[in-house]
Structure formats: C-alpha cells, structure tokens
Design goal:
The chain has three domains: about 190 residues, FAD/NAD(P)-binding domain (3-Layer(bba) Sandwich), CATH 3.50.50.60; about 110 residues, FAD/NAD(P)-binding domain (3-Layer(bba) Sandwich), CATH 3.50.50; about 60 residues, Enolase-like, domain 1 (2-Layer Sandwich). The chain is about 20% helix and about 30% strand. The chain is built from eight helices and 28 strands. The chain has a six-stranded mixed beta sheet, covered by helices on one side. The chain binds flavin-adenine dinucleotide. Flavin-adenine dinucleotide binds next to helix 1, strand 2, helix 6 and strand 24.
C-alpha cells in the first residue's frame, strides 16, 4: 500500500480509536477523520454488562481516554451507508459524501436480534451500546424478575448483575451449561454450579418459543412448554458484524456470528478474489481474521470479538495502511469476565480444544486453572481467581502458535 495523505476511520469505538492512535504513533501526520454512528466518542463497552448494570458506574463514566495530541476530526451521530471504492469515497446517512485516501473499517458488531416467531414486546432488551445499558439498568431498578435468553458470557454477566441486585433470574440456553461453547464442558460445569448456588434458575437445553404480552412483556413460553412470568428479558444471542454498508463494495464479507470483513494477517481488507484491497484495513469486532488454528473443515477466517483484538492488532493494521514493515507475529486473543464474584480470564481460543487439562481446582477458594489442547498443541488457558498464572500460559500459547510460521 502507498502512504495515504488522509485517513477516514469508520466506527468511532475502541478499534477506531486504537487504529487512529497507532497511526499517529507511527508518524502519520495527515488528516484523520473518525465517523461514528453513536452520538458519543469511544467508551468502554465491557463495563456495560458489569459495573453499569449494577450501578457502580454510570454510562457517562465509561468514556475511553483520548490522547490530547490525537488531532482527529470527529463526525459523530453519522452512519456510513455505502462505500464507493472506484471514487474513493463514502456516503453518509445525512446525504453527504466523504473522500478518503486510506480507510480503516472499524464498525464493530451489533446484538443479534430476536429470530422470531413474532416481534418481541417492549420489555425485551438487547445490550450492545450505552443506550441499551441505560434502558436495561432502568428496567432492573424497577424490580421484578429477569429472563436472560442466551447463556454465553454476556448472558451470564447480566444474570450475575441482576442477582447482585437481588432480582430473580432465569437463564435459558441451548447447551448443557452456560458458556459451554466458549470454555468447554469441564469449566462450564464448574461455573454452572456457582451460578446455581447464587440462585440463578438455569434452564439448560431450552429455548424461548415465544414471548407473552402485547404492549408490555408479561412472560415467555419455553421450548419445554413452561411459562415464565417476567417483566424484563434480555436477548443475549451473540453479535453480528456491521458490514451492511459494505455490500456491493467488492470486499470479501461473510455473515453470521463468526463473519465480518475478511482481512489478511496484516489487517488488509481482502477483495472478493482474495487479494489485498488497496488502501483499506480492518480492525476490531468487524474483522474476520485468518483462522489462527486452521484445520480441515474449519472456516478460513474468524471473528474473535474480544477487546484484546482491537488493541493488540492496532499497530500492525496502522503499519499496513502506511505501507510500513511490521515484525508482528500471530496475536494471542485474551478475554476476561467478572461474574458471581469470579475473575475469569482466558487466553487463546479455548473453544477449539478437544481436551481440557485441570491444573488446579479449589472449590473452597473458588480457584481454577486449566489449559486447553487440540491434537498435540496447546490452544488456550483459563483461570478463575488465579490471574497470576495466565502470563506463563499465554507465552506458551504464543510460542506454539508461531512455531514454523513466517512473520507477517
Ligand atoms: C456488553 C458487552 C460486554 C463485553 N464484555 C467484554 C469483556 O468482558 N471482555 C472482552 O474481551 N470483550 C468484551 N466485550 C467485547 C468488546 O467490547 C469488543 O470486542 C470491543 O468493543 C470491540 O470494539 P470495536 O471498536 O471493534 O467495536 P464497537 O465497540 O462495537 O464499536 C464500533 C462502533 O462503530 C459504530 N458503527 C457501526 N456501524 C457504523 C457505520 N456504518 N457508520 C459509522 N459508525 C458505525 C458503532 O455504532 C460503534 O460505535 C463486550 C461487549 C459488550 C457489548
């Protein structure tokens, strides 16, 4: 890629901010314009399902710090609706266009909607942005019970927040235990014990067949025929990459929970034919990065959807956009979750393991340390209340993933 004179960053979230900061750190002194659909600048989304719901922080207290010398133009409250690559410009939803020389795609993801049947009544929430968190916090403050639909990390964190507020919580999920897909059966079964012990009504291998109520939520019917009376529900059904504005742009996109804008290991967006697109990079939840553990039958690209991705890949992506060398190797994703008094930390991609090794399990002190393996390879590690053990595991995963791999 040749060095651009001006850069437009679409998406003013964590990835947009980190990409802009990395461009400046690499000496880029041209114009940077950030376009963001939300009316406010970047903020800390993970707090929304934790401290904001419990009332320990207000939504306004989640702003991310911005370096005073970033020197960027902010176009907030505006959505990119189309990309015209031949004309090197974007159309915005106010009817204006914006020319770019270099482009950073950082539009993140949106909460997966209710798949049906019917349209859910008011009282059924999703949680992705600040406005959602304020709405859900208000509903929880009104008391009553909470039904959480979807037992991944987000669903479990919201269940934890609601229990800490003293609300009755029902957690419905398709697996045997909450978070099983992400952390595997060994860890998920231990965590399910903690959740049940904290008073969460776990409904495994269950879905919601439909909601009750018209103008306001009255309850839900579960797939086993049970009726739950509840005034607030959260849909925690995963995230979908925000790629709609890129349809027809000639970039390679894939839909679904693991989809996004395909890019190479340097973060360069790919053309439909697989070659790198000129002057366009991708970062954060909207990026589908090359699968770090390719296997027969596995998709070529994968959206990882962790905070660490936007942070750890920002410099590589900035270097690629500026046409500079970057000696970076494969990054190891990391993830944290705070729920039910547990500090859960993971590195790597536990969901691709076929074997879990337990190194320490102390139920009295709520401590757990496991590593994940696939074939002869370590693919991840997870600790509960044993964070100090993680750095060594991360280093081993990093070495194993990069063994025999050429630098990017
Ligand atoms: C409730 C919640 C809790 C989480 N907790 C954790 C956690 O504990 N640990 C962890 O590792 N990760 C967690 N995550 C994930 C983490 O927040 C994301 O990985 C991170 O926010 C990704 O940053 P991003 O900038 O790529 O996307 P986003 O933060 O989604 O930002 C993208 C921005 O682009 C804007 N945008 C979208 N489309 C357009 C468009 N067409 N034009 C202009 N702007 C557009 C969006 O409005 C948004 O502001 C959590 C996420 C949520 C929602």
């Amino acid at each position: 890629m040749r060095r651009p004179e001006s850069v437009v960053v679409v998406g003013a979230g964590l990835a947009g901010l980190r990409a802009s900061t990395a461009l400046r750190a690499r000496g880029f002194d041209g114009r940077i314009t950030l376009v963001g659909e939300e009316p406010h600048g970047p903020y800390d989304r993970p707090s929304l399902s934790k401290a904001v719901l419990t009332g320990q922080r207000t939504a306004a207290e989640t702003d991310l710090p911005i370096a005073p010398d970033l020197d960027a133009s902010w176009r907030l409250g505006l959505r990119a609706v189309r990309l015209d690559r031949a004309g090197r410009s974007l159309s915005l939803n106010d009817g204006t266009t914006l020319a770019y020389d270099g482009l950073v795609i950082a539009t993140g993801a949106a909460a997966a909607p209710w798949p049906g049947p019917g349209v859910p009544p008011p009282g059924v929430h999703t949680l992705r942005g600040r406005r959602d968190a304020v709405g859900l916090r208000g509903a929880l403050s009104g008391g009553g019970g909470l039904l959480v639909v979807g037992a991944g990390f987000l669903g479990a964190e919201v269940a934890s927040a609601a229990r800490s507020l003293g609300l009755p919580v029902t957690l419905v999920g398709t697996g045997r235990w909450p978070m099983e897909r992400a952390v595997g059966p060994v860890v998920a079964s231990v965590l399910a014990g903690v959740q049940a012990g904290a008073g969460v009504d776990l409904r495994p291998r269950t879905t919601v067949a439909g909601f009750l109520g018209d103008r306001t939520l009255e309850g839900a019917v579960l797939s086993d025929g049970t009726r739950i009376r509840v005034g607030t529900a959260l849909l925690a059904l995963g995230a979908r990459p925000n790629t709609g504005w890129l349809r027809g742009s000639g970039l390679r996109l894939s839909d679904g929970p693991s989809g996004g804008v395909h890019c190479d290991r340097r973060g360069r967006a790919l053309e439909e034919d697989g070659g790198p697109a000129d002057g366009i990079v991708v970062l954060g939840d909207v990026a589908a990065v090359p699968h770090p553990l390719p296997d027969r039958g596995s998709p070529s690209h994968l959206s990882i959807g962790h905070w660490s991705e936007a942070v750890d890949r920002a410099d590589t992506v900035a270097a690629a956009l500026l046409g500079q060398e970057s000696p970076v190797e494969e990054t190891v994703p990391s993830f944290w979750s705070d729920q039910f008094g547990l500090r859960i930390r993971s590195v790597g991609l536990p969901r691709f393991a076929d074997r879990t090794e337990v190194h320490d399990h102390d139920p009295v002190r709520s401590r757990l340390e496991v590593t994940y393996h696939r074939g002869g390879r370590m693919v991840g590690a997870l600790t509960v209340n044993r964070t100090s053990r993680l750095a060594a595991h991360r280093e081993r995963v990093r070495r194993e993933w990069n063994r025999g791999r050429a630098p990017v």
